[in-house]
Write a sequence for this structure.
């Protein structure tokens, strides 16, 4: 375990929207206000415990100040963040870089919430711990107890989420089951049950032919050919629903897969070797 202290600065916006200010600070803003303030991003760090065993931790808190702004012809752009991490053991600062993709959606459209995504989840920088090289991998935004891939930000307010990350060995994938939502809300079929799987590693993982299964016969899901989990990517395999934002995977089963009283999900590779399980 390493105790670390984090802080962050926003270093670049590409392409550049109108009226940008706050570069190289922890609070960047842009746009010409319609009525309220400018829109912008904040990053707030803190002191946390960081494991090197794949455990997810909070890197800091991300806030999007979302106010109506006048259109300037650019509604999608990338915003770069540098997170400065100080490890207690050696009292040295190290910088880790990430990229956020911002979509300033039309306020009068069918989906007015602005969208924030993470096209770059793995820092290009690394740190050596106990002789091994590690990089920081962002695995999602945590809001209301749920970790999601994409941050949706309603208008006229400041919307926040924790940035969840892991320290992972450089050049290695690490696919793990992180949750089994075993009791769905859909009556009888529990079609909305799901298993959540995350690649917490720094390298992409080809999971073609891997099998997700329970302990009973006929409860196998095999990933189709060409299935790759990108570094930091989080997916869900539903019992009988298809959600594109989670990869679009489904058992296609007309009955519940996971036992409400207790069950274990297993994930094995093409050789049959157990990769991960979750009870």
């Amino acid at each position: 375990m390493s105790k670390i202290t984090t802080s962050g600065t926003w270093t670049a916006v590409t392409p550049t929207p109108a009226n940008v200010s706050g570069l190289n600070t922890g609070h960047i803003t842009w746009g010409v206000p319609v009525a309220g303030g400018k829109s912008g991003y904040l990053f707030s760090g803190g002191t946390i415990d960081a494991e090197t065993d794949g455990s997810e931790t909070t890197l800091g808190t991300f806030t999007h100040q979302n106010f109506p702004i006048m259109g300037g012809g650019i509604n999608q752009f990338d915003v770069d963040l540098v997170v400065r991490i100080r490890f207690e053991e050696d009292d040295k600062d190290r910088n880790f870089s990430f990229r956020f993709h911002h979509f300033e959606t039309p306020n009068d459209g069918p989906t007015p919430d602005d969208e924030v995504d993470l096209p770059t989840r793995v820092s290009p920088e690394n740190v050596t711990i106990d002789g091994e090289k590690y990089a920081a991998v962002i695995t999602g935004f945590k809001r209301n107890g749920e970790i999601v891939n994409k941050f949706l930000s309603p208008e006229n307010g400041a919307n926040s989420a924790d940035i969840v990350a892991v320290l992972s060995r450089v050049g290695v994938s690490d696919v793990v089951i992180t949750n089994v939502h075993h009791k769905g809300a859909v009556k009888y079929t529990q079609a909305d049950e799901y298993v959540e799987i995350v690649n917490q590693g720094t390298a992409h993982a080809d999971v073609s032919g891997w099998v997700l299964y329970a302990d009973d016969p006929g409860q196998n899901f095999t990933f189709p050919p060409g299935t790759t989990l990108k570094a930091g990517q989080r997916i869900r395999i539903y019992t009988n629903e298809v959600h594109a934002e989670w990869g679009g995977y489904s058992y296609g089963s007309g009955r519940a897969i996971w036992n409400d009283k207790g069950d274990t999900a297993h994930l094995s590779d093409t050789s049959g070797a157990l990769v991960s399980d979750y009870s």
